[in-house]
Amino acid sequence: MNQNYFKHYSYGKIVYDLRKNDPKLFEPWWAFVLCDPGIVDFYSWLCKSWGKPLDRSTAWGSHISWAKGQKPQNENLWGQKYPKIKFYYSNIIRTDNNQHAWLDVWCPELHEIRQELGLPKKLNWNFHITLGRLR
């Protein structure tokens, strides 16, 4: 981990298959780390103050997606409870795709959980917190 890049840390709660009871929003095999909304609030405010306002409408709230619709090989472990997990995040707002703003996240524990579930390895080691869509 590059400590100069991932300068901040926080904790989040792992949740699975959010919105199971809402057929409009439910998609199976999705998992998130719900994180402090203050992180998104602060960096969204920075974007706005720099002339890059964001559309922050998301059904999931402040989160890190770590499983995106892929059925795990070890289905019996899906939904396993974990204590809050620690993740590190960058203070550099990225907008590389000219559509979204996000913060890179480093969390080795999420890679371990993906491995336990039998999900494919991520090509890069980073996850991210989406701040919103660029307007």
What does this structure look like?
The protein has one domain. The chain is 17% helix and 32% strand. It has 2 helices and 7 strands, in the order ββαββββαβ. A 7-stranded antiparallel sheet has the order 3-7-6-5-1-2-4, with helices on one face. The mean pLDDT is 89. It has 135 residues and is an alpha+beta fold. The protein is globular.
Instruction: Encode the helix/strand succession as letters.
Output: EEHEEEEHE
Apparent shape: globular
Low-confidence stretches: none
**Given the helix and strand composition, which structural class is it?**
alpha+beta
| Residues in helix, % | 10-25%
Number of helical stretches of at least 4 residues:
2
Separation of the first and last Cα atoms = 32 Å
Sheet with the most strands, sense and barrel status: 7 strands, antiparallel
Averaged pLDDT, please? 89
What distinguishing features does this structure have?
135 residues, alpha+beta
Topology summary:
Layout: E1 8-16, E2 30-34, H1 37-49, E3 54-55, E4 63-68, E5 85-89, E6 100-106, H2 108-117, E7 126-134
Short structural summary:
The protein is α+β, with helices and mostly antiparallel strands. It has helices spanning 37-49, 108-117; strands at 8-16, 30-34, 54-55, 63-68, 85-89, 100-106, 126-134.
